[in-house]
Every structure is written in structure tokens, then in C-alpha cells.
Amino acid sequence: MPDFDDDLISDAFAGFSAAAAPSVRAAGSGAVRHTIKRRRTRNTVALSVLGALLLAVPVAAYASMDRGNQGPPPVATSPEVTFSPSPSASPSATPTGPDGRFTLSQLTSAKIEVPAWTGGSGQSCVSGRVRLPKIKDVQYFNVPGDVGLFSVVHTNLDDDAALETAALIACKTGEASRRRVLAFDRDENGRTVMKGIVASGSIWTIAANPQGGIDADVSDFQACCSTPKVMELHQTRTYGWNGTAFAQLGGPEEFAAHDGLIDLAVSVKGITWAETKQITVAGAKRPYRTATVVLKVVNKGPAASGEWMVLLDDSGQAEALSGIGQAQPVLAAGATVEVTVTFRVDETMFDLNDGARLWVYELGTVSSGYDRNKDDNRTVAAYPK
């Protein structure tokens, strides 16, 4: 089951727009380490910098990008500017090759080799021998050429014991960015050599793995605009040199928890409205009421779900308070669970909207649509009239 199919995000995301990115997978992967984590931060945009795909939903406001798996291409080398070895870190093993450590300042102070960005929106990204500026955000940045360098780590990226440099770069492609991790080393004459692409995809941060290679924080897509960032599914995947090529060495290879369509259905079991309370908004008192809603969620199968969450469509002017945008445990096929959520709404909206729209979303399926029936995975919590 691939991380991404070529289908557009389905109508389950009506009311939202998202910038989708390819999964980060590499050929020849081994099951060495497996760590999954979830980013639940909603108001901050995580930093990172590599190949991504842009998908506009529901309005095609952004440029289209190539889709599919993003395995590392063949290793390529290119002689570059000569730098003195970086004194900032000590190798963990006795070097048997050139010191390949570079600082962020060194790699942004001279031209370095950037491989061509292939497919879709990547065709507009600069490549060749270019000087990349530093960027502070891997998704939102504005630099000449729309390509920048975000971070570097020192780790073993080849067969010798000396350390090399893994550099996270990004190309801005609208509201998303394409991201890559490049490997840099020195040759015997001290010249900078770009050894290849270690990984590509929606990579937010990288860290040196003690066993060699990098640990990358990877998401299934890049949320933007009105799409809640909590919908991103984050995993830790390990990439490095497998003896013949750069490849995925550890961590999960797919985002979706199953390879068949399931059917998550939601309905309102009960709703209670609190009394009107005056709340100051933008310097003015407004009459708000808080709703406590008990939802019934059923997995009609045939497979067990992955983690899932309840989301709130703000078209009804409701504001989430609790239980919304929080990852819920796996739901077995045929299982039923009740979830309590709360939200508040300006009661002057009651006559303008029929209610707050709530829906259930299975994490990791943003681009593959693993729900057989998208008509029953949403419901309306009616406003009092």
C-alpha cells in the first residue's frame, strides 16, 4: 500500500484546503527502528525543508506537483568550494576518510551543488551550482530562487568512519514546499562534494542517528490555509547509506494503517447547551453559548482503523473547546465508541446556520481516501432555535 495514490483528496475535506506532499519512502529499506510520533500542535508551523507536493482543496489555488513515492535517486558527486574542516564537533569514531563536517554558515556562504528537482512544481526550483540562503521556516519562506537551506547535522553517511554533513533544504512551491536532505563530504583535496539525496518528502526536522544516517520527522502532507495542522500524521523514519545507496533504514514505510477501504460513521447521540455567557471578543462583549455533544462513532469495517479524530468545520462559526482535533485510539472493525466534544458559538449565528458540522477523519489517509462512505462520516450538531 503506497503512502499516496494519485487521487485528489475527496469531498470529505470540503470546507478545507490542504497542501499535500508525497510520502517519504526509499527503496531497499530495512526494519531497524520503528518510532511513530504525532504532532498535536495546532497554532505553530513546524520547521523543515524537503520535497513536497502541493494539492489545492477544494479550490485549485496552488500549482500542481508530482505525486508518488520519493525514494533517493542514484548517488551523484560534484566538486565544490574548499572549506576548512569544521571544529564545532568531534567525530564519534576514528576517521578513516576526509572530515566531511560543514556548518550551516559554510554551506550558505558559497555555491554548492543542488540536484535537479524533477516533476510537477519542482521544475521551477533552482538547481545546479547555486548559493542557498538560510531559511528559518521550512514551509513558509521568501528567498531568491525560492530554495533555501534550513539545517545541518553531522553523521556517518558512507562506508568510512568519518562524519559527513546532512543538509535539509527546501523549495517553496506555493503554500507548501518540496524538501530534501543532501549529503555533503570532502574529497582527498579538501573540496566540497555533494554525494547524493539522502531522503525526500515532507521532512520537518532531521537529527543524527547514533548508528549512522539521520532520523527524520516526516508527515503525510503539509497542512495549510484552513486545514488544521493536527490532521498531519507524523512519523520518525531513519535514512542513510546501506552500503550501495542512500535508502530508508528504519521506521514505518507507510502512513495508512490498512490497505483496504473502511467506513467510519458518526452521529449525534445527545447535545446539551449551557446558558448564554458574555465573552469579550475583539474588545466587545458577545453572547456565547457552549455545547456539550456526545458523538457515536462506528467503524463499519471491514478492517480496523488507524488513529482517528473528530474535527469541526468552522463554516457554522463554532469554536472548538475540547475533544476536537485529538487523536483517538484504533477502532476495530464493527466496534462502536462514544466521544464527548465541546464547542462554543456566538448565539447571533443561530439564525444564520443550522448547526456545527462535525466529522471523523482517519489519520494518514489524507491523499488516499480510505473511507468507503464519506456521506456518513460527518454530522451536524443543531443550533437551538
3D structure, described in words:
By secondary structure, the chain is mainly β. It has 2 domains: 11-250, no CATH class; 264-382, Immunoglobulin-like, CATH 2.60.40. 1% of the residues lie in helices and 38% in strands. The protein is built from 1 helix and 22 strands. It has one helix at 104-108; strands spanning 19-20, 35-36, 79-82, 112-114, 128-130, 147-155, 164-172, 177-186, 191-200, 203-208, 214-219, 221-222, 234-241, 246-250, 264-273, 277-281, 284-299, 308-313, 318-322, 336-346, 355-362, 378-382. The strands form 6 sheets. Strands 2, 10, 11, 13 and 14 form a 5-stranded antiparallel sheet that branches. A 5-stranded antiparallel sheet has the order 3-9-8-7-6. Strands 15, 16, 17, 19 and 20 form a 5-stranded antiparallel sheet that branches. The chain is elongated, with a radius of gyration of 23 Å. Residues 68-102 are annotated as: Disordered. The chain crosses the membrane at residues 44-65.
Question: How would you summarize the topology of this molecule?
Answer:
Blueprint: E1 19-20, E2 35-36, E3 79-82, H1 104-108, E4 112-114, E5 128-130, E6 147-155, E7 164-172, E8 177-186, E9 191-200, E10 203-208, E11 214-219, E12 221-222, E13 234-241, E14 246-250, E15 264-273, E16 277-281, E17 284-299, E18 308-313, E19 318-322, E20 336-346, E21 355-362, E22 378-382
Antiparallel strand pairs: 1-12, 2-13, 3-9, 4-5, 6-7, 7-8, 8-9, 10-11, 11-13, 13-14, 15-17, 16-17, 17-20, 18-21, 19-20, 21-22
Offer a few descriptive terms.
mainly beta; Immunoglobulin-like; 2 domains; 1 helix; 1% helix
